[in-house]
Amino acid sequence: MKTPQQGLRELAALEGFAPAVDALGDGNPLPYVLVVEPRPELARAAVTTLVETLRTLPDVDLVQDDGAWRERLDALVGVARRAVQLLAALLALAALLVVGNTVRLDIRSRADEIAVLQLVGASAGFVRRPYLYEGVWYGLCSGVVAVLLVLLLELALAGPAARLAGSYGGQLGFAGIAAPVLLTVPFGAALLGWLGARLASARHLGATMPH
């Protein structure tokens, strides 16, 4: 339950409303407000039924339901999340191809050295191992750079996000990306680098193996 005095104080705390509240003087046109927060697991149909029931009460002048707005917001967040997932998949594929192409060019530049190793009896695993390490390092370094860029982006957005939250009375927040997710990025990138190097080396070294 919010009293008219509490509502007036909250209104005055919002950006741009303080002069209007001061102009009211001792008057307070705000009514008593009962804030009802349904449980998160409650279905939308049950919330709608609750809203309609509250509207039929004789002492209730107005019932404001933010459920529709939240549904639209959740839908937009879902679309954004799916777009980010697709973008991440495309970037992972691009990283795989870039590392594979880099290793392929490195193998071609060392074709004579590889041929000598194969002639003296070096196994495919022995010849391939340096390129796998190379792919892992490429992936690991790119993952670390990506994490640093994300952290810089979060720092750049922290100020505007705080001002946006303040304009909504502090009801919004900017959480950023969780630390466990950031820690897994370099290792995931290293795995992609290893896989790209493995595919490229298996294909191009296999073609140069003596028969």
From TrEMBL:
GO terms, biological process: cell division
Membrane topology classification: Multi-pass membrane protein
A family per Pfam: FtsX
Keyword vocabulary terms for this entry: Cell cycle, Cell division, Cell membrane, Membrane, Transmembrane, Transmembrane helix
GO CC field: cell division site; plasma membrane
Locations listed in the record: Cell membrane
Residue spans crossing the bilayer: 83-103, 136-162, 174-195
Source species, domain of life: Bacteria
Main subcellular location: membrane
The name this protein goes by in its record: Cell division protein
Origin species: Mizugakiibacter sediminis
